[in-house]
Amino acid sequence: MPGIDKLPIEETLEDSPQTRSLLGVFEEDAAAISNYINQLFQAMHRVYDAQNELSAATHLTSKLLKEYEKQHFPLGGDDEVMTSTLQQFSKVIDELSSCHAVLSTQLADAMMFPITQFKERDLKEILTLKEVFQIASNDHDAAITRYSRLSKRRENEKIKAEVTEDVYTSRKKQHQTMMHYFCALNTLQYKKKIAMLEPLLGYMQAQISFFKMGSENLTEQLEEFLTNIGTSVQNVRREMECEIENMQQTIEDLEVASDPLYLPDPDTTKFPVHRNLTRKAGYLNARNKTGLVSSIWERQFYFTQGGNLMSQARGDVAGGLVMDIDNCSVMAVDCEDRRYCFQITSFDGKKSSILQAESKKDYEEWICTINNISKQIYLSENPEEIAARVNQSALEAVTPSPSFQQRHESMRPIVQSRPTAARTSSTGSLGSESATLSALPLDSFVAPDTPIQFDIISPVSEDLPGQAKSSGQAGRRTNPFGESGGSKSETEDSILHQLFIVRFLGSMAVKSDESPDIVYETMRQILAARAIHNIFRMTESHLLVTCDCLKLIDPQTQVTRLRFPLPNVVLYATHQENKRLFGFVLKTSGGRVDNRQTSVCYIFESNNEGEKICDSVGLAKQIAFHAELDRKASEKAKEIERVKEKQQKELSKQKQIEKDLEEQSRLIAASSRSNPSGGEGQFVVLSSSQSEDSDLGEDGKKKRESET
Q1: How many CA atoms lie within 13 A of 269 on its CB side?
Q2: Which of 82, 87, 80, 84 has the alpha carbon at shortest distance from 63?
Q3: What's the CA gap between 11 and 7, in Å, rounded?
Q4: Is the C or the N end of the chain the one with fewer CB within 10 Å?
Q5: CA–CA separation, 603 vs 490, rounded Å?
Q6: How many other β-carbons are positioned within 10 Å of the β-carbon of residue 532?
Q7: How far is CA 33 from CA 46, 113, 202, 269, in A?
Q8: In this predicted model, what pLDDT tens digit does every residue of 285-318 receive, in sequence order?
Q9: What are the C-alpha distances in Å from 708 to residues 408, 658, 659, 697?
Q10: 443, 417, 413, 441: which is closest to 430 by C-alpha?
Q11: What are the residues facing 581 on neighbouring strands?
């Protein structure tokens, strides 16, 4: 006999859609068996009725043959041969009638009784268990729904205890009912074979017994076959008894082991959280909007498949795609006064889902699993081992290492290539100082116990270092594409406008801005702090890169949250493994520490565009640098033009003075010829020349004296 398909009793507590789908197959099989057995029962009952009818008809025939001699026929009524022949036939038929009566009794015992027992007892038991299981499942779903609606703000211990007890009782009842239901369905696979083979065996044996009186050959032909059938039936019966014993033992063991799991929120000390998972499956409550402000929560089975999040309702054969969680973001949220809620946002920010876990353990495991999948760890050969190593590195990151050379190389980002001209004005040469700076102690970059800021604080409410304050910058709506309907925007003249979707991870003050290792160390400390303190919330913004500044813009209100002047951005780098992480150092003007100007390092997460953002910032600085060179060249050209104009004016003035002097000389010579004494005329000429000198001014006087 081939192997028997069985329902997994061990998976009854999980109650996954796959198990429900398999249960549906078994239920369909049970319904088909029931339909077929009913038809077979009717056919066998017709055989039994026919046999009874045959027995009665044979007995009636024998009786009629005996009464032949009592009949009065008009012709040939006294035929003694015919009468004696019919009497002999009557005896044979009477014996056959007795044999048919025995056959009817054997058919009733060997054929009708087993199939009737299977139909009336086993199939009805399956239907009864199915109804009980459906009631237990509905009670469990109702209890889970009431438990999910418990408020975490106004927690009533009495109500919580009642609801928890209700969940415990309903889950235990469902589990036990489901196990017995599975056991009955598994047993049905054996009983259906017995229920079909045993009646047939009884029927054939009864027929053989019937025919043995006159057909030994027929008996010899069927004896070996019927013997084999009888042996198979006995083997199936023994296998069924052994399997029933094993299933009963499994049920007893699972009832003892599953008792703590009936609680909806088990103790995390007894059941620790697994943070290295790259696959997860279980029931979650999903929020679905039904209107502008209204929403409903639906409980479905969710599971991860590679880089996809799938969901599957009860009764469905396969799951459906919910979201691509490669490079996605996940964060804890407060939603409608429900506990254990978290939000998953796709990599492009266009799709998000809010889900609610049943327990704190599931809540943390789902967030950690999605974080691991978003980093594409599942694509490696040993995903759980790599996830454990990454998480261990994050845990060890809270203790600063003595030097950068002793850190994990996997946590080092790679510096983006930036324009030489733009970097010269901000940090100078890094090639000669790289080896020296990498060996400096950690305290030379980040001061111990430096606070980390995880939220964006608008300049309206707090003066951030390095933020220029003006009446038109704080809290003003900004069009990121440079289109303004009223006053002219400060970025309209910029030839570069690039917009990126980013999420703010954190910022902290640093001591130096002379090495890209500062960005690496800040990334390490912020990621480690988020991992240790389970901080998953991130503020999403639009980062606008222009030739003048970097702006963080609220995507909903288009209000500028922060503004970073581009000349103050002195360093920028992206992570080597996780291309979504990038950061930059902003030189502030808020004060000095240890005779050094303080700086702040900002770390962001993008949609896999860290390198593009760094390239955009480098391009903006290069454009600004060349614009500054062009501005200085233009100013220098204007200054040269002004000097040339001044020299031209001086030259024309000098020529005019020379012309006046020549005219005066001619007048003096003419006066001398007309008045030889020259006394009064000379006085008149000198007086006129003095008056001309007074009109020329100091420069003219000096010029005339030199010429004279």
Answers
A1: 0
A2: 87
A3: 9
A4: C
A5: 25
A6: 12
A7: 20, 18, 20, 48
A8: 998 888 777 788 899 999 999 889 999 988 888 8
A9: 88, 11, 14, 16
A10: 417
A11: 605
pTM of this structure = 0.45
Q: What is the C-alpha to C-alpha distance for residues 699 and 689, in angstroms, rounded to an integer?
A: 15
| Ramachandran area for residue 570 (φ above 0: left; ψ -120 to 50: alpha; else beta) | alpha
Q: What is the pLDDT of residues 491-516, one digit of tens each?
A: 445 677 788 888 888 888 887 777 77
Q: Is 352 helix (H, G, I), strand (E, B) or coil?
A: strand
Range of lowest pLDDT (1-5, 596-600, 632-636, 689-693): 689-693
CB 375 within 8 A of CB 390: yes
CA-closest candidate to residue 188, choices 7, 2, 1:
7
Cα gap 127→134, rounded to integer Å: 11
Angle at 595 between CA 442 and CA 589, to 5 degrees: 95
| Residue 553 contacts residue 564 (beta carbons within 8 Å) | no
DSSP 585-643: EEEEEEEEETTEEEEEEEEEEESS-HHHHHHHHHHHHHHHHHHHHHHHHHHHHHHHHHH
322 burial (CB, 10 Å; 0-12 / 13-18 / 19+) is buried
Which three-class secondary structure state does DSSP give residue 376? coil
Q: What is the pLDDT of residue 180?
A: 92
**Residue 184: partners with Cβ closer than 8 Å, 6 or more residues away:** 125, 126, 129
Q: What is the largest CA-CA distance in the chain?
A: 215
Q: Give the separation between CA 305 and CA 323, rounded to whole angstroms.
A: 11
Which of 33-37, 223-227, 450-454 shows the lowest mean pLDDT across its residues? 223-227
Reduced to 3 states, what is the DSSP secondary structure of residue 331?
strand
As a whole number of angstroms, the distance between CA 416 and CA 610 comes to 9
**Beta-ladder partners of 501:** 542
Distance CA 137, CA 131 (A): 10
Cβ atoms of 139 and 174 within 8 Å: the answer is yes
Between 672 and 60, residue with greater pLDDT: 60
- Residue 634: what residue type? S
CB of 254 closer than 8 Å to CB of 9: yes
Helix (H), strand (E), coil (C) string for 269-288: CCCCCCCCCCCCEEEEEEEE
Q: What six digits make up the tokens of 543?
A: 């980062």
Read off the amino acid at residue 496. L
Q: Specify the pLDDT at position 659.
A: 87
Structure tokens that stand for 301 in this block: 């089975």
Query: Which of 49-53, 355-359, 575-579, 670-674 is the least confident region?
Result: 575-579
Query: Residue with structure tokens 């951030």?
Result: 464
Question: Residue 262: which of 168, 174, 195 has the closest Cα?
Answer: 168
DSSP string covering 399-468, please?
Answer: S--SSGGGS-GGG--BPPP--HHHHHTTT---TTTHHHHHTS-GGGTS-TT---B-S---TTTS--TT--
